[in-house]
Amino acid sequence: VAAVCTRKYVPAAGAVAPEPWARRGTIQRPGGVMGYATVGRGPALVLLPKLGGWINDFAPLAIQLAGDYTLVAIDPPGHGTSQMVSGPPTVQTLSESAALVRATLEELGIESFVLAGNSLGGCISATMAALWPKTVSRLVLISTAVYPKDPLAKILEDEAKANPRNYADDGTPLQRTREAAMATFGMSAAFVDEMQ
What we know:
Layout: H1 2-5, E1 23-29, E2 32-40, E3 44-48, H2 59-65, E4 70-74, E5 83-84, H3 94-107, E6 113-118, H4 120-131, E7 136-142, H5 152-161, H6 178-185, H7 189-195
Parallel strand pairs: 3-4, 3-6, 6-7
Antiparallel strand pairs: 1-2, 2-4, 2-5
């Protein structure tokens, strides 16, 4: 998959991007309504977007991979067309989110799959792979940080050393320049442009 994913989908100037999904829908599950979209043929490739993202984050990928995979993009709980049962503020663990995604896949009849997640979607994906390893044939994590929780003292110590700082004195995240973000996260200009 990685070799195919390096190509960037660029619509012609002024063109409207085509609808890549053959089917969209929602599934009512205990805990919420889960939104999904599918397209393609072949082995199942399940896609979970980032925090604040949604199914269409994967539209360019769907256009390129639908000939080789059955792509199933799922909006995580509280994102896109998925809705949580209770109103905000709602806190849900990664395990609870993973269980809702798995229940959605079961409802769609998908038992074994390649699982790819971006950021929060990657955290949910890693949790699913840990909880149900027999269902995940391969795991693809994109921009995902999965590690033991740092103690608050270490976080505060790292922040005191950060230049530029990441947070204001009141804890509000500070905006980063493109250059600062590239330096902080070790990203190249080409990578940043690709993400835009």
